[in-house]
Amino acid sequence: MQKFKKAFRRLPDPRAANAKHPLLELLVISLAAVVCGAASCAEIAEFGRSKEELLRLFLCLEHGIPSHDTFSRVFRLLEPRAFERAFRQFMAAFAKANGVKLGGVVAVDGKALRGAYERGGKATPLHLVNVFAVEARMALAQQKAPGRNETAGALEVLELLRLEGCIVTADALHCHRGFAEAVLKRGGDYALVIKANRGPLFKTITQQFARSGKRNTTRQIDRSTHDRSETRTATVMRNATLAARFPGVAAIGRVTSRRKLRGQRADRTVVRYYLLSKYLPPKRLLDVTRSHWGIENRLHWVLDVHFDEDGNRARKDHAPENFAILRRLALNLLRAHPDRKSIRLKIKRAGWDNAFLLQILSHMR
Questions:
Q1: Do the beta carbons of residue 75 and residue 323 sit within 8 Å?
Q2: Whose C-alpha in 75, 100, 261, 356 is 20 to 30 A from the C-alpha of 180?
Q3: Residue-range domain boundaries for the chain
């Protein structure tokens, strides 16, 4: 708990100076509740009342358990940038203490909070940009996309990170000079997919692969238990001449994939081209491009299915962003626990078993 207190104790309290319940206690109760599956302020308050005896083992609770209105007011008023900064500080300390390496592939992608909209604004919900350490399976940061502009949000969130030793991946939306420069400035490398809408640059890359030249190629067949197999081939060519047209390009890559379902004809071959800021062996390129989808499967999908993020109707003021940070923090703690059970079972067990919940929270020491 000490690392949590150290990271969050300087978080500015948006309430009046005579507030009865300390902000840190509110955050700890809320985090424990979300770890156990709470999805609203009413559920957090109910959790607190049902687990008061347990919470008193490590919280003072001089004035008892706060009401749901108190939790609601705090999360509506709390400054998201300060809360997110404390989240990143805690995750850095948490990873160091638990031997979790946050390097490797770092995926950047946007996600809409479908339930976070005001009346009449269902088509324009809050849009966040998430950063995910794929190999550690940890959420690293989030940033609200200004005006739902994911490109601008991605540039803002990159400015918050240290990317030494990381390979940053993103979809074709982020294949532009600004994103590449931001990654290089923060000490990282990139592997960005480029599509035909990039015009002359895309044409130059495809022409280079069409011509003869030195290249390295590897082929991989992935057999799945879901009655399908996929053949993937990666080719990488060194290219420093494109650096004048796109920041930091050192190589270009091509990945062709073809999927076949059992008993059916193979699907059409899909070809994707990549800009690389450092040379990657073809096998590594296959690993990097495949692992990018971890942000969808291991972060976005889990948040929607197990934490009901899309169904959450927190929408007033800063509440949607702050609850999103809380969910990512809870997910990271659940992932870090050595029990190999699913996230769903861990959430259930944390709610049922006080000893297990204390084990989850003890990671914050």
A1: yes
A2: 100
A3: 2-86+314-362, 194-277
